[in-house]
Amino acid sequence: QLQLQESGPGLVKPSETLSLTCTVSGGSISSTNYYWGWIRQPPGQGLEWIGSIYYSGTTYFNPSLKSRVTISVDTSNNQFSLKLTSVTAADTAVYYCARLMKFQLGGYVDYWGQGTLVTVSS
Amino acid sequence: SYVLTQPPSVSVAPGKTARITCGGNNIGSKSVHWYQQRPGQAPVLVIYHDGDRPSGIPERFSGSNSGNTATLTISRVEAGDEADYFCQVWDSSSDHVVFGGGTKLAVL
Known about the structure:
The complex is a heterodimer.
Chain A: E1 3-7, E2 11-12, E3 18-25, E4 34-41, E5 48-53, E6 59-61, E7 69-74, E8 79-84, E9 93-103, E10 106-112, E11 116-120
Parallel strand pairs in A: 2-11
Antiparallel strand pairs in A: 1-3, 3-8, 4-5, 4-9, 5-6, 7-8, 9-10, 9-11
Chain B: E1 9-12, E2 18-23, E3 33-37, E4 44-47, E5 61-66, E6 69-74, E7 83-91, E8 96-99, E9 103-107
Parallel strand pairs in B: 1-9
Antiparallel strand pairs in B: 2-6, 3-4, 3-7, 5-6, 7-8, 7-9
């Protein structure tokens, strides 16, 4: 059974960089037909896709966040990571890592991490 | 960028049928997926490829997609179906993932 686990600080100061890592177990991050992604959910609000990465390193980002986001993959450790720079209180959210099944017409999330709350506050 | 529109809330009595819509420009040409999210939990996929059910999802959950509207239908609604539901597409022209704003299903 595939499992994804987010890790990283739960509190980040304004203007600093939010950094999270997702560790994948029970499957290989190098599997074809899958993307790996980050999705966030501010308290009481909906889901927002942040970006996705393929094991080869190809990345795609939400245009609204693209200038502040970096997503990288570490195939040797079966992990992928998120960095979000210049954070503000608006970046306070539960951050989920996820596996996305990709097919010709699109794709969907078939596995989610449990989510980790990141609060931006001084 | 592509926009998906959902009603903020839908109410239904137990045993009745709930229909949650997801609107988008020519969404019928895209593959739509639906997630259920209970409070404090991660979302769970309940419908993929417009109308397919993952294993473990009751047959009461079904989906359709045509024109500018996709619909998630929950038959014989139970109290345990009370949750937020999100639709999602993958815009293949840009490889961007898009979520609808979510619909809170209230079981009266």
